[in-house]
Amino acid sequence: MSMPLAAAIRPKELSDVCGQKHLLSEDSVFRRAIENGVAHNMIFFGPSGVGKTTVASIIAKKTGKKLFKLNGTQSSTSDIKDIISQVNTFGTENGILLYLDEIQYLNKKQQQSLLEVIEDGSVTLIASTTENPYFSIFNAILSRCTVFEFKPLSAEDVKEGIANAITNYSKENNISVDISAQALKTLSYGCGGDMRKCFNALELLLAAAQKTDNVLKITDAMAKQVTQRSSNRFDNSSDVHYNLLSALQKSIRGSDENAALHYLARILEGDGLISAVRRLQIIACEDIGLAYPQAVSIVKSCCDIALQTGMPEARIPLAHAVILLATAPKSNSNEVAIDLALADVKSGNFSDVPAHLKDSASFENRNLSDDKNYLYPHIYPNHWVKQQYLPDVIKDKVYYQHGENKTEQAAKAYWDKIKNK
Questions:
Q1: Which pLDDT value is given to residue 231?
Q2: Which of 131, 153, 272, 369 is most deeply packed, by most CB within 10 A?
Q3: Residue 28: Cβ within 10 Å count
Q4: Closest alpha carbon to 248 in 330, 316, 319
């Protein structure tokens, strides 16, 4: 069985790895340690197809350690013990490097089975995960490892990888490959920063390309057929999910409707309709708030329409909501006010409810007439009368400060006049 293209052309030196310049530049600590033949327990965190396995293989070669690979989705405690049993045996004199892919799928007991050997150095652990390691990996392992983040590859990084792959393929197969500039762009932008996905698409193109005069020709039309929706990395359980939603909210908060539409498009293209609906409704309350109170009901209506119609029509009411929110005046005075109130409650900074506010049927007020204690605002001019509402120990506390927007300032002016401030 022939080896997949991605495996056949896997880089053998750090200088051949595309991307990850923050880790692999010549002056980086990470690279200098590897070049000096030193390996430490490490966790590689990042999306698929960005070089984690490749770098781990190069580290094993540079350090002279025996490389073992396990995948957390298939491995058991006995698999780990089998590798540990080979410590100090023939072929492992320089130590063992265990590359454990998708470590987040191992349970606590399985992860803990590694603690003793990585603590004494008989096994060097390099674990990779596509999920946030601070949530998915147990602290005992984290405390013994250094976390390095692998970032999605840029289109230029992928383009470099494609060029290298085509050069190697041409040499090994004694054939020329003619790939159009547009096809190269389609491939490099269409893989979402995943080099493995790009190589799989390229391998399919090479197999399907017509051969003329010992030349394989790859057109843009062919490239588009193998990169349909391949740039989508959206996953409801991944950091990418939360990063896109965060970018959407911060773009709206920053009143940049174009950026907000961009992130909405990426979320919708990744089947994130429900996530978009949830986030837009909270944005209406959190970031627009009392500056334009009607935004809450408008956005709720847009979201209801989106859920009832589904994609692709849902994109229209959601775009309506995004543009409305991004271009609306902003205020978070409601959020600040409730957070201040919650802080007092959580710290115990309050006392009993004033007697005149208690239920007239309560034990304390059972013998008192309600209208002698509580002043009913609706029978007073402008439906307001001065009386104490907060508990005694915080009776003068102010949580809500009117925002500087037109709506809240109008409300402030009204009540300042009524309350004779």
A1: 55
A2: 153
A3: 15
A4: 319
Which residues make beta-bridge pairs with 66? Answer: 96
Round to whole Å and give the CA distance between 195 and 157. Answer: 9
Report CA Rg, the chain: 31
Cα angle at 353 between 348 and 354, to 5 degrees?
A: 135
Neighbour tally for 57: CB within 10 Å: 18
Parallel, antiparallel or unpaired: strands 215-218 and 210-212: antiparallel
Place of tokens 């909501």: 321
Across the chain, what does the average pLDDT equal? 87
Contact 364, 355 (CB under 8 A): yes
Residue range 5-30, pLDDT digits in tens? 777 778 888 888 888 999 998 889 99
Residues 55 and 17: beta-carbon distance below 8 Å: yes
Rounded CA-CA distance 357/377 in Å is 13
Whole-angstrom distance, CA of residue 4 vs CA of residue 24:
25
Question: pLDDT class for 314, splitting at 50, 70, 90?
Answer: very high
- CB 8 within 8 Å of CB 143: no
> Pseudo-torsion of CA 238, 67, 76, 103, nearest 10°?
-20
Tens digit of each residue's pLDDT (9 = 90 or more) over 35-77: 888 888 999 998 888 889 889 888 888 888 888 899 988 888 8
Tokens standing for residue 368 = 């008192």
Which pTM does this prediction carry? 0.62
What is the identity of the amino acid at 164?
N
Distance CA 148, CA 308 (A): 43
